Amino acid sequence: MQRREPQSRLIQAMKDMFMLPDLRRKLLFTFAILVVFRFVAHVPLPGIDVEALSQLFEQNQLFGMLDLFSGGAMRRFSVAAMGVYPYITSSIIMQLLVPVIPSLQALSREGEAGQRKINRITHLLTIPMAALQGYGMLAILRGQGIVLELDPLTTATIVISMTAGTVFLVWLGELITERGIGNGISLIIFGGIVAGLPSMLGKGFLSLENPLGLVTFLILGLATLVFIVAFIEAHRRIPVQYARTTFRSGRMYRQSGSTYIPIRVNTAGMIPLIFAIAVVTLPATIASYFASATSPNFANTIAYVFNPGAPLPLGLVYWGVYFLLVLGFTFFYTMIIFEQLGLAKRLQEQGGFIPGIRPGKATADYLNRVIRLITFGGAIFLASVAMMPLIATEISGIAVMTISSTALLIVVGVALDTMKQVEAQLVMRRYEGFLK
């Protein structure tokens, strides 16, 4: 029997996706929800100078990057301007609080019921986080002279509308997770990023004074994509053997088997980049409250230095701090994840052991040592990807287009995860059909 070529397997998989009724229904439902999300992203809020806001996003690289994540909703200052990021912030806060607060630790050990309670707390925490972030965004734009003078009632209306927009998008994401294909929240972020890519590419092609630089920029972008895919899929397999003793009909039977624990090089995903961006942009955000357009002061200097678009060598302050924060947060977040998993304890409870390593503390020390070594590679990978916008801009000389490392990680990661889920659905359907 001849093996199919990868291209033919891919074409056949795409055909099967729409030939199976239930899978086709899930795909169409996911697409319909994403269309609804794009409609919501175009619903504007009152009291905004649209032209001044557009100029701000053209001049400020940081705001331009945030607008890319929202798919242009922030540039239009719509009800979906904040996207689902207050929910992401709440999820990160809950992940950090679970190992610290005993009551949350107890909930995490209750299985699916406990996880539902933690998810409910996360959803409730999203509402005040969305209100605070919405008011903070409104205050920053007011300091830039973009928001007109608003009375308290109009301000409250805008903040409530932005909060409602975030909650609505989170609900849409939950619908995709339940009835569609893939992780709904990730697909909402994915849809916002992909929707903003055409306009960014269009700006790059309009600046054809430097065609060689544009070609270099695109080559670096493709190389970054390959680099990200390779590291997302990279993992180390730790061999594990199981030996169990069972009693049947009064006799003792010994069962054995072997498997492995896949430890990813990039276990932390994009979370360290989000942490690092939040911290490194904090000085500029705070300084913007005190900056003055008429008489520049120290706050203006801080806002200028901690801007990703600042020219070198001043720009090295922002990018250097960003690089170090990504390294630190990668180690910190990865260790928290593995501490919550408790791999050594689970192995011992299930009768598993690593060949050549004693169960218990010796296994825990071995796993921690392996995880630290692998995490070092993952941290260097994330920090290198984080520096790609600076490298691409300096080599190509094109500052109009910006390769956002976090955006690329999200797009690649969500695309791979969604395709794996589709493939799993296809394999399950084929297996069921074979049994029939």
Architecture overview:
There is one protein chain. With 436 residues, the chain is mainly alpha-helical. The protein has 2 domains: 21-206, Preprotein translocase SecY subunit; 210-403, SecY subunit domain (Preprotein translocase SecY subunit), CATH 1.10.3370. The protein is 71% helix and 7% strand. It has 19 helices and 3 strands. The protein has helices at residues 6-19, 21-40, 50-59, 61-69, 73-76, 85-97, 102-108, 112-143, 152-179, 184-206, 211-233, 271-280, 282-290, 298-305, 315-341, 343-349, 361-386, 388-396, 405-435; strands at residues 235-248, 251-264, 352-353. Strands 2-1-3 form a 3-stranded antiparallel sheet. A hairpin with a 2-residue loop joins β1 and β2. α11 (211-233) packs antiparallel against α18 (388-396). The longest helix is centred in the first third of the chain and has 32 residues, at 112-143. The two termini are 22 Å apart. Mean pLDDT is 76; it is low at 1-7 and 431-436.
Task: Give a short summary of the structure.
The protein contains 19 helices and three strands. It is mainly alpha-helical and 436 residues long.
Helix content: over 70%
CATH topology call of the largest domain: Preprotein translocase SecY subunit
What's the number of structural domains?
2
Count of DSSP-assigned helices: 19
How many β-strands, per DSSP?
Answer: 3
The gyration radius over C-alpha positions equals 25 Å
Shape: globular
Report the mean per-residue pLDDT as an integer.
76
Main beta sheet: 3 strands, antiparallel
Strand proportion, as a percent range, falls in: 5-15%
CATH superfamily of the largest domain: SecY subunit domain
